[in-house]
Amino acid sequence: MKLLIVGHARHGKDTVADMIKQHFGLEHKSSSEAAAEIFIYDVLKKKYGYKTPKECFEDRVNHRKEWHDLICEYNKDDKARLGKGIMEHADIYVGMRSSAEIRECIRQNLFDYVVAVYDPRKELEPKDSFDIDIWTDADVVIPNGGDLWDLRVKVYKIIKGLKRHAEWQSLGI
């Protein structure tokens, strides 16, 4: 099963990906981590004095729009370019931020399901760094308004259901 997990900053995407890995064994990679390793570190290291791709990755929260714009530029000729690179080595892509990219990745069949994570207690990002409408672009939205146990139960139920759905589809049901 191939998944895309989307959502606004700090709404729980990586936590959900970690839970899916723990319960179902699916490997995940964040868009920011992959982008730092592939190209963003090389672009920003002199500007911000980064010594490693990890240092660059850890500072991404201070430069969200810049990262968004750099990824859009990287994907300008193929909106699914970063997605394809991530999905070559992972089952789950965590953190796509562009509606144009999500549409192209879906058109190219990179994912079986798009899962969004939404925490009503947290602010939404501005459209210039996250322009995906989780309510229309996701197959399922996981509400993250409780504690970790509540989230774990929801993730387990939803992913178990998606796996069952994928199995039924493979049988033509």
Written account of the structure:
With 173 residues, the chain is of the alpha/beta class. The protein has a single domain (3-170), classed as P-loop containing nucleotide triphosphate hydrolases (Rossmann fold). It is 52% helix and 12% strand. It is built from eight helices and five strands; from the N terminus they run βαβααααβαβαβα. It has a five-stranded parallel beta sheet, with helices on both faces. The model has no long low-confidence stretch (mean pLDDT 92).
Characteristic terms for this protein:
173 residues; alpha/beta; Rossmann fold
User: What is the CA-based Rg, rounded?
Assistant: 16 Å
Q: Using DSSP, what is the number of strands? A: 5
Structural class: alpha/beta
- Return the average pLDDT rounded to an integer: 92
CATH homologous superfamily label: P-loop containing nucleotide triphosphate hydrolases
Q: Architecture, according to CATH?
A: 3-Layer(aba) Sandwich
Please work out how many helical segments DSSP would assign.
8
Q: What is the strand content? A: 5-15%
Largest sheet: 5 strands, parallel
How far apart are the termini?
17 Å
